[in-house]
Amino acid sequence: MIISHVAKKCHDLGNEFAYAAGSRGTYLTSRIQHSHRDINTLVTHEIYEHDHVANMYGGTLMSIELPEDAMI
């Protein structure tokens, strides 16, 4: 749960940073663009999906069986 929260916060901060950099940060040669793209790619991985992980964590705390298709 903590790792998905950290990934979500990094994603939020990365978006704010890219927005603050302006349109110059979108150039392919920009390190900002590269970092922003890497962060966006990272948070799309299932284990970092905050809502999914929170749902599984809450279900586990309440002794609810995980669905068969749960990505764990």
Helical amount: 55-70%
CA-based shape: elongated
Low-confidence stretches: none
Distance between the termini: 12 Å
How is the biggest beta sheet arranged?
none
Number of helices: 3
β-sheet strand percentage = under 5%
What's the overall average pLDDT, rounded? Answer: 83
Radius of gyration, in Å, reads: 16 Å
Specify the structural class.
mainly alpha
| Total domains | 1
Following the backbone from N to C, one meets helices and strands in this order, namely HHH
| Structure summary, number of beta strands | 0
Short description:
This protein has 72 residues and is mainly alpha-helical.
Account of the 3D structure:
- This protein is elongated.
- The relative contact order is 0.16.
- Helix content is 62%, strand content 0%.
- The chain has 72 residues and is mainly alpha-helical.
- The protein has helices at residues 2-21, 31-43, 50-61.
- It has one domain (2-61).
Secondary-structure topology with pairs:
Blueprint: H1 2-21, H2 31-43, H3 50-61
